[in-house]
Design brief:
The structure is a homotrimer of 136-residue chains. Chain A has a single domain, classed as YjbQ-like (Jelly Rolls), CATH 2.60.120.460. Helix content of chain A is 29%, strand content 38%. The first copy, chain A, has four helices and eight strands, in the order E-E-H-E-E-H-H-H-E-E-E-E. In chain A, strand 5 and strand 6 form a beta hairpin. Chain A starts with a strand and ends with a strand.
Chain lengths: 136, 136, 136
């Protein structure tokens, strides 16, 4: 099993970052023809998923999160800890912090317009760590 | 590691298809007693999850998606690309395109009334590919 | 591959239980330095995810589920089966029944305030089984 740690600087506030190039680099560096890459972002206010990474959907996704799990001052988390990121926690819990992607014939098993994204829901910029474990 | 590609024809528009029989066939064909099956549907407008696959919940699930992430003409994705499937993308991103299921004593580690389903959120019929990677 | 079955008694009704201690025990018992732990809760009315496990967020999370996928008598599932847990099924399908967590240097790859939780959405107390498969 190969382990790699990917560091990513984010702006927070639903910053949606395409991390597919970093994952593809892992394939090239480790000469992976077939396998599975297991990704986990450390922390409880970020998440991993896939999307067609184009500006329209980036906007639609952020607006959907705001509609479904809105920023609100009165979450119990915010009241208890004088915090402002209760919604960030809830979005991470719903979308989850992990994702796996398989590799066949040295390529990620993704669609042509499908990218792996890190979403940082926190209310400030962060340096995030994505742990990658690779099984070949 | 065993790799298999499962082809599934869908009708789109929240077509919810029970793919448990195809997964069980993989167990039988490969004589798997204990292991994990990693499933990924290729593309950014479909998803994988589990449910009790009965007509009532199939209807309830589709209606819940329509309520939470409705069809709307004015998504930025639709406006930018003269497209109509912005909601399909958002639903896939929220529910995610992958799922794993473990195997113990030659059976899927699922409940009696729990099935693995492919949901095709796109607005047209598609032939979907589900990649299965099996670790024993 | 190591297999373990973890039994957990729940109260149902969005009972959110921190199962991180049980996962950490698996690491200690099996002397795991680096690996991945694949978790699946059996059944179609529970789910696994992560959160900062503190009383405020436990309350906020339960309220968010009630707002997004509310208890309602008129789900088709309830009508068809004289049941009351249609919302429990839908929440499980959205949040999903599985989760994986990797291990590096004998520690879970989680944040300081990030715990693994089992959420039991069913409308009664249950004894749940979480299957853990460990690859080292």
């Amino acid at each position: 099993m190969i382990t790699a740690f990917i560091k990513i600087k984010t702006k927070g506030n639903d910053d949606i970052i395409n991390i597919t190039p970093q994952i593809q680099a892992l394939i090239a560096q480790n000469h992976i023809e077939s396998g599975i890459i297991f990704l986990s972002v450390i922390g409880s206010t970020a998440a991993l998923t896939t999307m067609e990474y184009e500006p329209g959907l980036v906007k639609d996704l952020s607006q959907s999160f705001e509609r479904l799990l809105p920023f609100r001052k009165d979450y119990a988390h915010n009241a208890a800890w004088s915090d402002d990121n209760g919604h960030s926690h809830l979005r991470s819990t719903f979308l989850k912090t992990n994702f796996f992607v398989s590799v066949s014939e040295s390529n990620l098993d993704l669609g042509t317009w499908q990218q792996i994204v890190l979403v940082d829901f926190d209310t400030r910029s962060r340096e995030r760590t994505v742990v990658a474990k690779i099984i070949i």
